[in-house]
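Example (one chain per record):
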Amino acid sequence: MERNAILPVRDGEVLEAIRAFLSSLLQGKLIDALLVPLETPKGYNIVPTIVSNPDWLQAANPLAPVMPLNSARVVSLMTMVSPSPNRLGVVLRPCELRALIELVKLKQASLENLLLIGVDCLGTYSISDYGRFIQETASPAKEFLNKFSEGKEDPLLRKACQVCEYPIPMAADLVIGLVGVDLNTGILLKANTPEGERIIEELGLEEGTIEGRGDTISKLVSQRVEKREQLFRQVQDDIHGLEKLMTTLAPCVNCHNCKTACPLCYCKECFFDSPVFEFESEKYFGWAQKKGGALRMPTDTLLFHLTRLNHMVISCVGCGLCTEACPNNIPVFDIFRLVGYQVQKAFDYVPGRSLDEELPLTTFKETELKEVGV
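Predicted structure:
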């Protein structure tokens, strides 16, 4: 089910057109509130914010090329205990939407009373690089859109974004389309569900189509897949064998920041934060002797990463915030993305593609994994 409309853009002000659309949802009482990225007072970052007063949307910026956290975690926080009592619109990037769908399958979030609004993702910077970017230009969102429209993908974009083959939102009621669109004249608003169609009809938006969008998307995806394959070849060389893997993970200090940043790590009581890993001093000395007189501290860092990988790799959406959160720049994303791709490919599973697709690890199919034998 699909219905397209065009959001008019005046004087090239794409962000203002999106703000006007979001404001119309509140003013028309089609929703009671929005969860949307708002610029911080000095504009150096954005923060997911619940907005019920349209006046606040003058600071809304879903186009800001920065993602300080995966907002699927915020939606989970708001809806896990009980569904939203009010009609809530949530504005999310594709990887955030996909993570949210996975969390719903894991019973960590609810979509009841939610209007899912996805935005084509052109990529994001790290928080520090974004801070520098906005100091160099008076209109960051417009400058970033212009770069993309000219085919200039910034090498400073986060690695996760450079190799992401899913820049177009999945499982959204409404998609704000930017890729393959002449942003000087209008923005594509695509309805994927009956609820999305109802919104377009209620707002009385002009219907229209965008010629060539599919070709542009295919070209972008092909470029990112090529970069992804280059990354995978490099990672396979870097971590092949236990010694290389341990060397790559050696800077780990057991801070568990990657776990905290990951939208799919949802356990309330993590095994690695439990007393199971609290030992008497004599045991450390004993282990050191058994290992030839030396014991790397802190212990169990390799076990931590492998266990976390085993727990969530089937649902990994490749947002890359694990690496962003690492104080020692360990390429956690690189490893998880490679293994995640291989595992998901084995099950023909794309996390977050559809709520109707069951999690592979919770179902059994007689036709799967035949190559490992009966």
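Caption: Strands lie at 3-8, 33-39, 46-51, 88-92, 114-119, 174-177, 186-191.
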